[in-house]
Amino acid sequence: MVPILYYDAPGSCAFGAIVALEWLCRPYRLLRLELPGQHSPMLETDRRVMRDCRAILRHIASQRRNLLGYKPGTAEHQHLERLLDSLHEGFQSGQTRLLAFCAFLDTQLNNREWVDGHKRTVADACLVAAVRWAQQHAGLEISRYPRLQHYIYQQHKDPAVFFADAIESQRPAVSSGRFRGHLRQEDWDLSLAA
Is the pTM of this model over 0.85? Predict the structure, then answer.
């Protein structure tokens, strides 16, 4: 079965999952949920359903020989796990913590191309989505954090990030990955999304 990512309104953490799926370069489909009360994001794959953004990103990280993650049990894998939790908590815990966390990230990104310091991972997709959300919904002024701003600027040059933005904005989009198109709600059993 080709995985299906259910997503909803722009600015959600599903943005990071779309970016990560593009980077993974494996076939996937999208289904935009437009009915109130439907859970999103959600990833359906081989009769398994993940309803938590971190679980979705962890699943993606484990694919293609840990292309966007690390082998379980390694120090790098444990670091990535903690990083995903920190990103989620740092951006969801109120304005004071958000600003402190952005200052921390600004320091951490000094002379780093990737947020984990080693390679592109699902944490990079998560960070792009989190900053995007914070700018739109929490009033984050990213210009106060020059390294973080530069990092986000560089990520926005990536075709996968551009694609995810076009998908969320419902503009024409060209996949650099293996996107197999949108499913229509009326053609799909949405009992999973309830």
Answer: yes
